[in-house]
TrEMBL record:
One Pfam family per UniProt: Kinesin
Entry's Gene Ontology BP terms: microtubule-based movement
Basic and acidic residues bias spans: 857-872
Gene Ontology molecular function: ATP binding; microtubule binding; microtubule motor activity
Lineage: Eukaryota, Metazoa, Spiralia, Lophotrochozoa, Platyhelminthes
Boundaries of every Kinesin motor domain copy: 2-327
Native source species: Macrostomum lignano
Gene Ontology cellular component annotations, sorted alphabetically: cytoplasm
Protein name from the UniProt record: Kinesin motor domain-containing protein
Amino acid sequence: MNIDVIGRVRPSIRNEGPCTLAIGSDNRVSSRPGGQSFVFQHLYQQGSSNLDVYSRHVEPMVDIFLAGYNVCFMCFGESGSGKSFTLAGDSSMKNGLVPLVLASLFAKLDPGDKFLYSQDGARENSKVTLRMVEIYQEKVRDLMVIPTTSDGGLQLRHTAEGGVEVDGAIVTQVNKASEATTLFREGWTRRNEEMTDQGLASNQSAVVLQLDLTYVAKETGLPNRSRFTLVDLPGSEKLIFESTHIRMRDGPLLSRAIVAFAGVAKELSSKRNANRVINYNQSVLTRLLQEELGGNCRTRCLVCMKPQSDSDVLAGTLRVAEQLALVNTFPILNDLYAQFLLTQIRARLLKLELDLGSDVGGGQGRPAMSDVKTELQRVQTENLQLRDKSERLLYRLEQLQSKYGTLAHSKADLNSELLSTEEEKLKVGKALVELEIENNKLKEELEAQKFEMGNRILELENQLLEASMRAEQWHADAMKLRQTEDERKQLADEFVRIKEQLLTQTRDYDALVAKNEELSMELLNLVNTKNELLKQRDNMSLAGMRGAQHDPQAEMQRIKAMIAKTPAEMAAAAGGGRGSSRRQQLPAERRMLRTGELDRELEGLRGQYDKDQEKLRDRINFLLKELQDTRQLAKNRLREISEVKAALVTARSDAQQMQLQYNRCQHKLKDLQEEYKSRLGRYVQDIAEHEDSRGGGGGDGGSLRDYVTSMLADLRRAHKSREEQLAAAAQEFRGRMMDTAREHERLLVAHESLRQRVLESAPDVDPGPPIDQLRLTDEELISGTQSELLRLTEELTRARKEAANLKLRLGARPDTGERQRLADGEAHDFQDLRRQIRDFNNSALEEQLREARRKLEKQQRRPRDSQPLERPSELRWAAVDVAAAAAVKIGEIAAVRTNSLDDANKSARWCVLSHLHPVHWLPAGRPILTHRCCRRHVDDEQLQQDDKRQATTGSFHHWCGEAKQFKAMDTGL
Ligand SMILES: Nc1ncnc2c1ncn2[C@@H]1O[C@H](COP(=O)(O)OP(=O)(O)OP(=O)(O)O)[C@@H](O)[C@H]1O
């Protein structure tokens, strides 16, 4: 019966991203297109739970176990793929398979859940025992006891009854599922969780849980015994390395269990007959699990996989899974007969071993054999340790040899390092000058900003002045208006007085007219009477009656008196005694005429009065309206003035802050420059001294090399910190500039609205310059980029000059090529730097090839059969780091300076391409260097602008992909 191999892909955790495994519809998982693949019997996808696995593939095993067969469930896969989660669940106590097995086992043994071992009908006297051990570095530790420091580990014992057992491991009888689960959890927490040089110890340890069930089968009345083994295997990631490589790196013990497991699986898969002979003694784990792997056991293996796995690691895991699926096991019912049979066979085997031992021991019998066996074991362990020691020594020897070789070439190395130091110096000098120029530019910008702000402040002060003048003008207007108001009031009073006078006159006039009419009537009567009297007199004179002459005379006298009296009364009625004596004597006709004239005059006066009244009213309305508008305008002006004042205060404080910031930058830069200069001088002096002492007294090349390396590291650190500081300062300054620009824009808007209002309310007042004149012109904006280019060119020239000066100061003369290079200018800068680093890499590559050749020759001379080792020298690491640092620096400078995504992409690409050579000749894992460079780059981008992140990360992946393709094409190099 073959081992069942099922797969499980765990869900993504902690921003791992989606599952990238190539999974076919037939449950085939491939490590890469055309690479190692395997078709699982069943594949649990990401959404599956422990309960799903349990119900489908583990619960049936509990039934088989209860039926009297040995069963085994093992979890296999790389570290972090979910083996522990599957078996034990997680901290949130989501149940793992072990607690589920225990619960189900006891539930099936005791379906009524009444008391222990009530029988389920098929069994009697059931008894469950539990044993749990951990195997780490070939030591077996009992997880049922608290570990002690003096724990020497348990030994395996081969007995005829039980086969291979852990000698001395505590076997605990468990009566309830909860009790068993608690024991399991306690044991699980006792696993070795130490952090070692090779990662967590638990990654390389195996946990074996053995549940033994004994009972009497009711049907036969015979005792039965079965075992359920649950195994958490060590991480499979080590399987991508050669075993010699693992031995070299981890020592002989750490990864032995998983390597032996894979070895036994391979052996078993190729020898499928029952009479096979398998070497289980490769490790403690395979010895302990020999029944489970190739004997009397029904075994199922769950292969756990991460959703995103390294293709090589996955290929290693799938290869073992494929081999396991071909392994045959031979489970039989462990009834009494089978147990007898097995015991007999084991006993025979043991006897054979003993016989063999006694032959070897010269016929000294059993006690001698056990001694020999113990001795053999001891010698084997000693041998193992000695082998380990000798391998380590050999490795150390090789290291030393390579170091000696390196020392022999130390001069060349030192030269190249000095060259790189020179380059570094150049770059640092260049960066320094760049920073200085940037700082100058910032200073200029700040000055310009200050100047602009000063202008703006002046302008605003002018505006304020104008506004206050206008306010004064409005104040004078208001005064005038107040005067006009007073005049209007006086006029209104006058008008009232005239009106009253007019009314009085009108009344007098009316009375006069009435009196006049009355007098006219009386006059008319008198005239009529006179006419009659005259007629009578005429008649009487005609008649000649003398006595009658007296009466008409009297009558005449009376009339005359009346007429004389009438003008006096009229004068009195006119009141004022104004009438002259001449007027008193006016005849009635004339007075009537005068009355008509008066009427007309009065009419005219009335018309005039109405017109005046109308005009006055209009004027008053107009003045009132004007007053209201002026008041409103004054209010608005006051508010705007206070706004402008506030803006001015803010702008001033901004300018002050910028000045402060600028001063701080200046100081920082000065300090850093000083520090750098003094450090550089000190280093160069030290190197010269060391060189002198070496030339004179035969100094130690290695220590000089270390010294130079540490110096370089020091320089790099100092430079990096300086860059970071300045980048932060520049960032802050840029932010401040942006704020000021925003403020400027806001003031412009305020200015424009003020201007519009002034234009609307007082067209004759100067509203200040239009907004367009205050904005930055297009030329100014374009000249930003051009001046940046110009500035970069200047920076480069200055950096070169500075470097040449430095060289001169240090005793080296700039060669003609250098001078030529100085003259070449900006266009050759990047090309030049690239060439230098490429040369540097090439020379390092040549060095590597030379070293490899040397090693090969050495190993050909050596009788050992071990493979030649491919270990890059420390110097090369340093060289790569220098090249990487240079590439990153240039990329960062380009990105920070131009703040352009294109440039960032270009430099990311350059980082990758310029590191292709180092990537080639570095062992697996080292390409992280390139990743790190790009990653840093991407991080910088993130700092600058968040929404660029995605694009830059895309570019990062793109170029890394390109680098990989390049690498694949070039593997024959
Ligand atoms: N099916 C799952 N559902 C949710 N989380 C899971 C699942 N499988 C594993 N994990 C989580 O993945 C992480 C790694 O799992 P786990 O520790 O079980 O891996 P491992 O293979 O046992 O690793 P190691 O060998 O280092 O112990 C843990 O945080 C675990 O909670």
